[in-house]
Design goal:
The chain is of the alpha+beta class. It has helices spanning 8-22, 25-29, 77-83, 96-103; strands at residues 34-35, 37-42, 48-53, 56-60, 65-71, 85-90, 116-118, 124-126, 131-143, 146-158, 164-167, 170-173. The chain is globular.
Length: 176
Amino acid sequence: MGKLRADPLEDRDEERQSEAKEASLRSVMACFPTGVTVVAARDASGDPLGLTVNSFTSVSLEPPLVLVCIGHGSSSHDPIVEAGAFTVSVLAATQVDVALRFASRPSEGRFEEVGWRPAPSGHPVIEGAAAWLDCVMDEIITAGDHSILLGRTLASGIGEGPALVFHRGVMSSTEG
């Protein structure tokens, strides 16, 4: 004879816990639509470097702060941290190819054949981006296998057209 339960809610709790264990954090987070950005800087020799990042958000309007999260294992992590500043290019819906390029390995040559211009700080802004921010590093917070880079926005701009969105493994436009 099976175990008797006095509370049917207990069965639902066990079922939910089992489902939660089966779903990975990555799968759950894929359900949350995010923007797609390229975070970039220039290394010590002045060469541009960057990577695709979707862990980006505003933190404060006064002072103007944003944050980006970069994995410790990324080849761009240390040079961006050492630069002490970075840009965030919010990619336009037409820039799926740029997002894929900056997400690929190896990281060398990502800026080849990609239009960019220097922000006031000299760090790269991707041409045609839906928006961009030029930031100086305000704080670096270690969180698990990532660094949270808190940046104070010194300059910014808005482009034309809709932004690129990542949702459930698919990149699409914010429009329709």
